[in-house]
Amino acid sequence: MDDESRQDLAQRMSILALRLQDEDNRADTLRVISHTAADLVPGTTWAGISLIEGRRVTVEAPTHSLVIEIEHLQKDLGDGPTLSAIQQQRIIGVPDFTKPDQPWPTFADRAVELGVRAMLSLPLAVHREILGSLNLYAAESDAFTYSETIAELVARHAAIALAGVTHAHHLTAALINRDVLGQAKGILMQRDGLTAPQAFEQLVRLSQNSNIKVADVAHQLVTDTENHASDDHRRGSATG
Questions:
Q1: Do 189 and 199 form a contact (C-beta atoms < 8 A)?
Q2: Quick check: pTM over 0.70?
């Protein structure tokens, strides 16, 4: 890479850092990451992000519907470059899916059928915490031969930005859940004459019996109560 190319790359990485800093919404942050990666990393035809959500890996901000199909294929097969990058916490590159002796032969054959010839998956990690992976796909074989360094720079910026918005996302969700839980307890206390601990125990029992999270049980109870109150109000208005 000559000096002019290095300066151009440095400028574009600075722009990426500033754009990510300006985003405070997780969905928008993910969209900036995937679309910038597709534009910035040489050889990339499509890009997407896989995030660890509890025990699941979800597909986020795909630049094309093909990304969703490729990632769901890996999920169905239980293996592939993305899952390996996340599990092994290292960069996984496949220069040419058409070559024999692929680590994932079934996946490789299907990827070629879909038009993907090469792939690069980079783990998104901060302080050894793995958040997911940045996944790049190419319609041409050997497309990422000289791209890994640039892709890794993008992934590092992405991981830091993603860690920040994910923390904020989880904090907001926790506050919302706490508020809804308080409302649900209040409904049970008023409706059934329970104390606060008894109301919470009832929510836990409902959660266990239905195999649904306590927060979701609480949200459903609050929603049902609000809908019931709204229906009563409409009926009262109609008869009045």
A1: yes
A2: no
